[in-house]
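Project standup — Tuesday

K.O.: blocked on the structure for the chain from last sprint. Re-posting the sequence here as requested.
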Amino acid sequence: MRIAIHTLGTRGDVQPYVALARGLAARGHAVQLAAPEQFAGFVHEHGIACAPLPGEFLALLDAPEGKAALAGGGSGFGPGFRLLKHVRPLMRRLMDLEWDAARAFRPDLVVHHPKSLAAPHIAEALGCRSMLASPLPGFTPTSAFASPLVPFASLGPLNRASHRLATEGARWLFGRQMRDWRVAVLGLPRRRAGADPALGTLYAYSRHVLSVPDDWGRDVLVSGYWFLDEAAWQPPPGLAAFLEAGLPPVYIGFGSMPGIEPRRLTEIVVAALARTGKRGLLATGGGALASGDLPPDVLAIGGAPHDRLLPRVAAVVHHGGAGTTGAALRAGRPSVICPFFGDQPFWARRVAALGAGPPALDRRTLSAEGLAAALVATDGPEMRRRAAGLGAAIRQEDGVGAAVTFIEERVASSAGFMLDF
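H.V.: unblocked you, prediction finished:
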């Protein structure tokens, strides 16, 4: 098959789809990944054809407007609403380039991230099927839990409605723009009249982290995480020496989150480490942490593959992104989560509920005392036992393999016969 994968967002929204693309390619499928242009080199390095998409959305997070929106915090739609006036003007060029990329590739199937709003319409215009593939739940209604995009673990009888709010939200925000584009560019009616081209829904997280609801059908698969491992990576000499120089350090990294107050956050982290007598590894990543004037028992690094580094640390302090959360859990290490926005508070609640980490810390009121108390909590034998057990269960899963099989079986079933893959 020819399979187009469309994704948007930060590295955490791209890396799992590179892993999926590699799994599909290994089974003989032709794959093209459409992703923000900032990641084109990263995609190519892993042997996958890349169709670069506009990078303005990603750049917006580091712009003053983006930092101001994120500084307000909140779950789900909050920061997005604050950025809406900046996002709307960028949508048309993005949709046009997604259409150009897919039309040139001529896919049999379009697999897409929830942020790729154009992908289902593109599949419709091309006469092929589509499949939603998401690193978080929230796009299949269920009564089992509330949408990750609302700040509550449960809304009781309103749980299903909260999921519909999440799936319909983008249509409310961009519906008119999308309908105009369907007519002007895709040559389709303003509204879809026929059958939904979706073949099913893939969720790239572990059922050990969040159980599969009983009210989901066979067209939904929770496959397990899509890890992109870097088996050949070795720590550079400075990092290797630091790791060997004492007890396992605490890893502190906030992924692609932008630098809102990097110096203040770094000072809090360093002070908390000093209070607990722990060593620390600071991954400066997207700029949330600063790298200067650190004590000898704290080392700053640009970043490192989680699959190689996290098994060598004592605990992980992070923002609660779906990918980082999965990596920390797979390593069997307790997580201290300090969410920034979006679905991150949801994963923080799940980790605490599983006993693999303390309750989430509020970034806006974070203190050295509060972080130190959370770090001490990660030394608890029961928390470490639960984190280790969860890691062992996740390491038994083959998320990419399960996802690839699901894609092939859904396509074969829809065709009414078994295809020769």
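K.O.: great, moving the ticket to review. The chain is about 45% helix and 15% strand. The chain has two domains: 2-225+397-415, 237-395.
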